[in-house]
């Protein structure tokens, strides 16, 4: 006789969902922003609908 012991196992599933859309406020009509020295600019980036929440990074000079 064969001994068929039930096997139980657990698993974790991560579902990654990209953002539905990304918006950057403060750019105007261009995707390039030029700022004069000693002045400031405010840009706001929003990524909506991603899971896990999107990690947004800003870069200066590429």
Kindly summarize this structure in a few lines.
Helix content is 0%, strand content 16%. It has strands at 21-25, 44-48.
How are the secondary structure elements laid out?
Layout: E1 21-25, E2 44-48
Protein name: Ig-like domain-containing protein
Organism: Stegodyphus mimosarum (African social velvet spider)
InterPro entries: Ig-like_dom, Ig-like_dom_sf, Ig-like_fold
Describe the structure.
By secondary structure, the protein is mainly β. It contains no helices and two strands. The chain has strands spanning 21-25, 44-48. Strands 1-2 form a two-stranded antiparallel sheet. It is rod-shaped and about 85 Å long. The N and C termini lie far apart (69 Å). The mean pLDDT is 86.
Biggest sheet: strand arrangement: 1-2
Distance between the termini: 69 Å
Q: Helix segment count?
A: 0
Write down the overall geometry: rod-shaped
Taken as a percent bin, the fraction of beta residues is: 15-25%
Structural class: mainly beta
**Low-confidence region ranges:** none
Order of helices and strands: EE
- Tell me roughly what share of residues is in helical segments: under 10%
Number of strands: 2
């Amino acid at each position: 006789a064969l001994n068929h012991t039930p096997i139980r196992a657990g698993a974790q599933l991560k579902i990654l969902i990209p953002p539905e859309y990304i918006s950057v406020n403060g750019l105007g009509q261009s995707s390039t922003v030029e700022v004069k020295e000693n002045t400031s600019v405010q840009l706001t980036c929003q990524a909506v609908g991603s899971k896990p929440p999107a990690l947004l990074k800003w870069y200066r000079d590429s």
